[in-house]
Amino acid sequence: MRILFVHQNFPGQYRHLAVSRAAEHEVVGLGDAANLRGKPPLPGVRRVGYDLADADKGAAPWRPLRPLDAALRRAAVVARAAENLKTQGFVPDVICVHPGWGEGILLRDVWPDARTIGYFEFFYRPSGSDVGFDPEFSRGGFDSSLIVRGRNAALLLGMAACDAGVSPTRWQHRQLPEAFQQRCEVIHDGIDCDAARPNPAAGIRLKRERLRLTRADEVVTYAVRNLEPYRGFHVFMRALPDLLQRRPDAHVLIVGGNETSYSPRPAGARTWKAKLMAEVGTRLDISRIHFLGRLPYADYLRVLQVSSAHVYLTYPFVLSWSCLEAMAAGCPIVGSRTPPVEEVIDHEQHGLLVDFFDREALLAAIERHLDRRDEARAMGERARQRVLERYDLTTVCLPRQRKLLLDASNGEGA
């Protein structure tokens, strides 16, 4: 079987599936050349980059049409890269593509006989999910609705070019238009529970502070790809002055970059970290707050393994891998009572859930974990068990993903 994976930031969600299939099949990954640059190779996977500099340039479109315009330009560049692959003799049986950036819109025109499986990650809605959720940053009105519709126009074109789809959680699946729900399966990307696991002996050394922290210490952790409001960074930071005052022995480890993945850029500051530090920094004991930036995966796991209370906050949006990795590592979690967090964590069973905006409830939940260590660790053990049962990479998710590929190559499925 020949399999093509298409993702502007390849491998993206396809890392494990692409490597596992490359052992038996011919696998090609097609992605944005700028994003591929500097990434380590994947065993057995041939990578091909397309260059957006080759996209046709025109007048800047009306703002609501910008996502569609960008998607169509990217689709044309990807189609040319696909035609080049075709002239080299590569004709895939199955194409796996994330349609969010427009890459899959024209692939059927290049390879009409290939079966295409889309990764249907998120369908935006003008209300009821992330848009308008946070009143501090909400635009509202018809302008906001137009922007959402423009973003979805590109997504709908890509989804319409797919024979079947996969969505990582039930809630994300329910956000799709009904017609697409019917040909989309719920299969998570998978969590490597052999890597993300509890380690009672774990420790993390902070060289600059000459400090070593272990599970015996009071360690509050927060870990995301980027520090931004979509993942509740503003809520967490505003709670820290009171937390540090109440817990004189606590240390806070913050993992994440200073870019923005989903939120708007902060007004009046270069980064959300800078903006929030300007707001609350004078009330913080800086010696006990440790911004670690983005870490190598092994170091990131050690942060989770020493955590006494791990905070995961999010708008109603895509569920982060970090939430499930923290569960797999046995962290006592304080999560936001928002979908799809509620889908993976039952309150007081696998962690504690609080209202996203309730700072006092957040503080109380963190303190409960710090004060009741045995109870907290029991919740962490149950959280790991849930991930093993529902989201384990090796035993649950990869087998289902492989079956989806096999069914598609045999012409089965939606």
Features:
single chain, 414 residues, alpha/beta, Rossmann fold, 2 domains, 7-stranded parallel sheet, 6-stranded parallel sheet, 15 helices, 15 strands
Structural description of this entry:
The protein has 414 residues and is an alpha/beta fold. It has 2 domains: 206 residues, 3-Layer(aba) Sandwich (Rossmann fold); 188 residues, Rossmann fold (3-Layer(aba) Sandwich). Helices cover 38% and strands 18% of the residues. The chain is built from 15 helices and 15 strands. It has a 7-stranded parallel beta sheet with strand order 3-2-1-4-5-6-7. The protein has a 6-stranded parallel beta sheet with strand order 12-11-10-13-14-15, sandwiched between helices. A two-stranded antiparallel ribbon has the order 8-9. Helix 8 crosses helix 13.
Please give a quick description of this structure.
This protein has 414 residues and is of the alpha/beta class.
DSSP E strands, number: 15
Q: Please mark out the parts with pLDDT under 50 across 5 or more consecutive residues, or reply none.
A: none
Main structural class = alpha/beta
**In order across it, which strands form the biggest sheet?**
3-2-1-4-5-6-7
> Could you say what the CATH topology of the largest domain is called?
Rossmann fold
Number of domains: 2
Q: What is the name of the CATH class of the largest domain?
A: Alpha Beta
Rg for CA atoms: 22 Å
H and E string: EHEHEHEHEHEHHEEEEHEHEHEHEHEHHH
Set down the secondary structure blueprint.
Layout (H helix, E strand, L loop, with lengths): L1 E5 L8 H8 L3 E7 H4 L8 E6 L15 H22 L6 E4 L9 H4 L4 E5 L21 H20 L3 E4 L2 H5 L3 H4 L2 E3 L16 E4 L4 E4 L4 E8 L6 H14 L4 E7 L14 H9 L8 E5 L3 H9 L3 E4 L8 H8 L4 E4 L4 H4 L7 E3 L4 H13 L1 H18 L2 H17 L5
